[in-house]
Amino acid sequence: MRRLKVMTVFGTRPEGIKMAPIVKVMENTKEIENIVCVTAQHREMLDQVLDIFEIKPDYDLNIFKPGQTLTGITTKALEGLEKVIVETQPDLLLVQGDTTTVFAGALAAFYQKVKVGHVEAGLRSGNLYSPYPEEANRKLTGIVTNFHFAPTNESRENLLREGYPEEKIFITGNTVIDALFHVVKEDYIFEDSLLNNIDFKNKRVILLTSHRRENIGKPMENIFTAIDEITRKYEDVEVIFPVHLNPKVRNIAHKVFDGNKDIHLVEPLDYEPFTNLMSKCHIVVTDSGGLQEEAPSLGKPVLVVREETERPEGIEAGTAKLVGTSKENISKELDLLLSSKEEYKKMANAVNPYGDGKASERIVKVIIEQMRKSM
């Protein structure tokens, strides 16, 4: 029997991180011909991931442009992917997550009547405009998906409620845990001397990330002001903030944080140093989706500075708290974690609901089993 042609399509750093473990498993699976196509919706940050995992794409659409719009990303990705799909004739196209590349990839496959596998399927916030445009991308992708790889039972239940057939939904765990175990090292040394000189043993370091479109403006200013005030209250607290490249985020960061010696604004970090930084910190404050999954695997309490989250499993398990974007509530929840050892331990020791590091193997096994039935 001939080998299955499976094309993985991804375009951003988070997608690359979560797709890389699957690509590596497929590289060593004799039943599969592995084709990698990147849109490069993000360029530099995606390249960092490709280097870490030693992945050389077979096709690189290189669509990134400064100031790109959602419409521009979608149309360029669709046009580029159509050519690649027509040329390679894959049996299955695999996408991951919720970006515009994911939606464009699934739609391009559908137009060519190629089956679609959706990794990390079934996440829902319940608000179509938050996160934006990710919530819509996930739902739109689901419509043309043949195999839904749900990371958790809650994701599976979301898909069942929307009417997707039970036999096409597979609980796998989240591949981000697979990737995390690959790169975190106890003796890791940073290239940045500032990070190497942080006293992680005697200081309680907060890792801050914030970049979501819906938080830019007053919500982000509230988040940063709460962080600024908490460092002035606790002498042993320092903050590391890898600042997103978006100029609007940078302007707010400098407006609030300039002059505070306990808050270190650094350039965006590659995946490997970032995850190792996360492993050394005390608390994570974030509006990111992926960090809500990664930090609990490292025993780090997560305060989610958003109004909704499509990852409720961490909230329910107690590894994360959804604290919104009001300055008062963020300050209160940070104060609780910093003043109460019991509260901190309760979150740090909660069981991570997102997987055991073997999600990629499960996904590849399902692909082979399911695709063989239809060939």
TrEMBL record:
Protein name per the record: UDP-N-acetylglucosamine 2-epimerase (non-hydrolyzing)
A GO term for molecular function: UDP-N-acetylglucosamine 2-epimerase activity
Enzyme Commission number(s) from the entry: 5.1.3.14
Ranges of residues in domain UDP-N-acetylglucosamine 2-epimerase: 26-367
Family (UniProt): Belongs to the UDP-N-acetylglucosamine 2-epimerase family.
Biological classification of the source: Bacteria, Bacillati, Bacillota, Tissierellia, Tissierellales
Keywords linked to the UniProt accession: Isomerase
Pfam families in alphabetical order: Epimerase_2
